[in-house]
Amino acid sequence: MPIIKKVSGLDYEDFDVAFSPERIDPVNSNWKLKNTPKIVSGSNRRSLNRAKAFYGKFIDVIIECESIEEAETAKLLENSFRFVNISFINEISILCHKLGIDVNHVIKAASTKPYGFMPFYPGVGVGGHCIPVDPLYLSNTARRVGAPTRFIDLANQVNHEMPGYFVELAESVLGNLTSKKILVIGVSYKPNISDVRESPVVALISQLKQKGAVVSWHDDLVKELNGEKSVKLSSNFDLAILATPHEYLDLEMLGKVQILDTRGTT
Amino acid sequence: MPIIKKVSGLDYEDFDVAFSPERIDPVNSNWKLKNTPKIVSGSNRRSLNRAKAFYGKFIDVIIECESIEEAETAKLLENSFRFVNISFINEISILCHKLGIDVNHVIKAASTKPYGFMPFYPGVGVGGHCIPVDPLYLSNTARRVGAPTRFIDLANQVNHEMPGYFVELAESVLGNLTSKKILVIGVSYKPNISDVRESPVVALISQLKQKGAVVSWHDDLVKELNGEKSVKLSSNFDLAILATPHEYLDLEMLGKVQILDTRGTT
Do B106 and A25 touch (CB under 8 A)? Predict the structure, then answer.
């Protein structure tokens, strides 16, 4: 808004700015653009009404926020909530592994509580263009005003540690990784999409290589990543790491290759 | 079980131990004992079946866990999830206050997201006999096995800091608290119950007193706490801190006393 004001020579009252945060969840078949309530806000009442009129044409429910700041903070809260909770369950998952307890059984049991609980699932980490990114804007502002969001900072820390944890698990299976042939399966940040932005699997591959492993990856949805191409599933590996379990995968093609399942879904 | 074995002289196979974690939420009118699914586990198949038969007499849905460890971890996950998320929203609340944004508006807006979000609400902290206590068992075990649950530890830290935050807010309203007359309203750990176990309001009162304030408290449900009695709501105070907003409260009896609302409910 200050830039528009400066460039145009207009006062703030003379132009309208609306803000409506995105709530798209790729591959969510229940909640699409149309039936997901849309938060809108404006620089003044007129902007807000114009935004409502616009989005009201193709979205069922419009939610007004009193200010642009409230609307943006709501979005950042939504994403930070997921970031914190996915990282939290990853930490619990590491603990359960050490204790010899199946974390997915634990989550399944806890999920039978009909109130006050929402399940999140462990994996190589949080990826995508929203969850591991947006909360850091809030965290940055928080540090600047002297009210640090330590939960977001910890989520970020745990998220960056997760690929290294799975490298350690690979070492616990194979010993020294030098020259070991490892196949990483699924490189997008979540199942059934091709999006590799901020995918933690990229860090997993890179860290396995740093340990001397000969790393290939398979993902029919992605096909190319950092100049490398997807390879076929086969039995020609010392270890397969199931990072992102796309539904199309047929793991029987791995034959007797041992699978390190980062999500415990197999 | 080792104690029973030792005292009785029996082998583990010769006696049955069942374990079923509690899921009671006081004042929850939707989810009572009967309609809240009950997790059961046993030291062997026979114990499990006996526990199922017992609880099945008066509870609608029985959920089997494969081991006592799984059942207990599920309970600890449920409680730790709440502990982490309430502490997280408390941190967000402090940030919003600094930014001049109404956190309750933000939570209300975020809650219109129909998936992937669950609202939690800020306050003086987490209390009661479960949420601030049970996660620390898990955290203690986690440290012992070298897989620290940093989210739980941070939740505990934030929880202990919250009363001090509201003391600072009181100071920002009144200046030096010495000899200031402060009324703390609601001392139980959540609204509409009399339970003061682990109530963060106890720490709030104690820390206000350390600053020299003359602190009284009002709570018709509690009436006596650490040898002190509930006082009536009146206009005879420099500041009222609404800590636990019971439904019965009539804040108009405070006249023109300024209210510091820890939950933003007024």
Answer: no
